[in-house]
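Hey, quick one: can you model this chain's 3D structure?
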Amino acid sequence: MLIVPFLMIAIHFWSLETGNLSLPKEVMTWGITKVNIQSIPTPPDNPLTDEKIALGRKLFYDPVLSGTNTTSCATCHNPRKGLTDCAPLSTGDNGVIRKRRSPALNNLAWNDHVFWDGRAELLEDQVLADKSMDQVQATWPEELKAAGYEPLFQKVFGKDSALTAKNVAKAIASYERTLISHNSPFDQYTAGDSAALSEQQKRGLLLFSTKANCIKCHSGPNFTDGGFHDIGLPDSDIGRFQHVKIPTMQHAFKTPGLRDVANRSFFMHDGSSSSLEDIIALYNEGGRAKDRKVDPEIKPLGLTKAESEDLVAFLKALSGKVNY
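Sure thing. Here's the predicted structure for all 324 residues.
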């Protein structure tokens, strides 16, 4: 079980059972009711400070880092769109449509790898590895100096070599670590408010944790195991295998967290699902790729229409508050 010590987690055990199904007790420890910013895990060389977070936030919404000066981080990771762009595939600053969807950024402080294929280990690496802005990073210091950023960087990083691409990444990553979804109806339910979930959502939670088998990959307070799985999508993208040459990593992609999932419009790495109902249908079928073996946890579920509707209702209960 993933332990998140920084969170103010209130635990209250409810007896949730239907027929032969009962809710695993650990699920009730996954609630996030409040966030202690200063306890968010960070790399040793990039501790969080209020000034650095504020600088990262300013950079996140500023298009100055893009080649055309029209695209910012928030263009693809829009707070009003669940920290994505609500498009099936992302579009670069140069207008080129890319092969994968923009992943959501919330609750990423505990991820060991980022991007769909996990090619970057830290959020700092993600900022420097992201090519969607179509800007040569060597030009960032000059662009930012012209935009009046130099005093802000000196205040955060000191006067010597403060305005560098590496420090840009540190600032943006610091802000991204604070994008934590919490206090959703699910969180309120785990804190003791039995009325926070509807009866349908309670049935969905039970199914999520038992018959539907979602809990195998979508576990812990952020509803992800942090791993990579081939869930049976019929496309040619080899995913994690491009970076880790292990057979089970072929067509495997990072398990996305499910917090605020209902705020998005497209799903999966390739944007091939346009609704939560279609996602449930995909898993209920046991995947749709017929030309290969997929993750052993992907198998037909035998969910009824009513059960699928209950699952969707529960997923909507994972929408919480994010301090942008």
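One thing worth noting: The longest strand covers residues 7-8.
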